User: Fold this.
Amino acid sequence: MAINDQEHREEEEAPAGEDEDTGAQVAPIVRLEEVAVTTGEEDEDAILDLKSKLYRFDKEGNQWKERGAGTVKLLKHKESGKVRLVMRQSKTLKICANHLVLPTMSVQEHAGNDKSCVWHATDFSDGELKDELFCIRFASVENCKTFMEMFQEVAESQRFKEENKDASATAGLLEKLTVEESNSDGPAKEDKELSAKEDKKVPVTPAEKQTEADTEKADVENKKEE
Assistant:
């Protein structure tokens, strides 16, 4: 009896063997499908990409307020050629700034800090157009100068493009007016030429010719009798 109890106790204390691999595959309960994430920048090329910290001027509080730290980009559209400035916060990817770089814009160095610069823009980062005064600060003077130079270069190129567009539109309008004037003169000119031809070539019937001959013959006989 004691032996049986000891054997039973050894069986209970014996370590469990490792699970055998049966080769069975268990399908997941929920299947997750891959979702394409779009940023809205797929049709644009980045011509500038720099880390920075952005501020906006609060008119009511009369002070600068931080918008976030992240990467500022200048994105050029592949078809239209328009360039916009976009900045997102590094952690949340929330948009801090989102506006077009227009020909009328200019960027200036922030007084007292050669690593910062300021500019005015009509921004759309909050879902509605707002006139903002932005200040951006970089880690180095070189990055700040690079940003300012590229910003001004884009603004000037957009100004040149607008001037060419206006010149092309004016040339097209003048050409259209010239064509319309030529077309309006055409029918009147043709009518005048047709009238002149008709005046020169008046058809005479045989009866009219005989009448003229008889008249001339009678005049000759009258002169002889006199």
